[in-house]
Each structure stands twice: as C-alpha cells, then as structure tokens.
Amino acid sequence: MTIPGTAAGPAALLAVLFVLRLRRNARNRRAIPDASACWRRGWFCHRCGEVFFSPGVLVAMATLRGLVWRAGGYAGLSRDTGPLLEQVSQRWSGP
Questions:
Q1: 3-state class of 53 per DSSP?
Q2: Is the pLDDT of residue 5 over 90?
Q3: Domain assignment present for 1
Q4: How far apart are CA 44 and CA 12, in angstroms?
Q5: Domain residues for 84?
Q6: With DSSP H G I counted as helix, E B as strand and the rest as coil, what are the percentages for the chain, rounded to 5?
Q7: What is the CA radius of gyration of the chain?
Q8: Cα(33)–Cα(64) distance, rounded to whole angstroms?
Q9: How many domains does the chain have?
Q10: Model-level pTM greater than 0.70?
C-alpha cells in the first residue's frame, strides 16, 4: 500500500535542488570573463612561489586567488577590485 504523493515530496525536492544548481552554474558562467581577465594579469613564478601581478607587483598566490574570486563575484564577494588592487600595489611596491 502506497500513500498518494509519497514520491511527489522527494521529486519536488530534487526539482528545487536542480533549479538552484542551474542558477548557481549560470551565475558562475557569467563571472568567468571577469575572473579570467584578472587571472591572466598574473604570472606565477615556480622558482619563488609568488605571482607577478601587473603592473609589476609581487603578490602571494593566495592574494591572487582572492583577487580572482572577488573579480568573479564568487562566494558572495564584492566585484569591486579597485581598492584591493590599490592596497596590494601600495603594499608591495617599493619607495
């Protein structure tokens, strides 16, 4: 004996999860060009383990990763990288 609608609950849950996944994937695809542009500005040096980030700024790999995530708007971060790039440039540029 089955109760009518027993399969409807899990099916509805799966449908909602599917739609949420589609929305998240679409948001990530829209962010790829901005994140990729930020990623291409850096060059990883295997010898020193740091990233040369244009314009001539040396940053840690974790910092570049944070910049890329922020540029793409991933994980709910603000997409404004201007102030962060200025801080990185001031911190790593010599006098």
A1: strand
A2: no
A3: no
A4: 46
A5: 8-92
A6: 60, 15, 25
A7: 21
A8: 16
A9: 1
A10: no
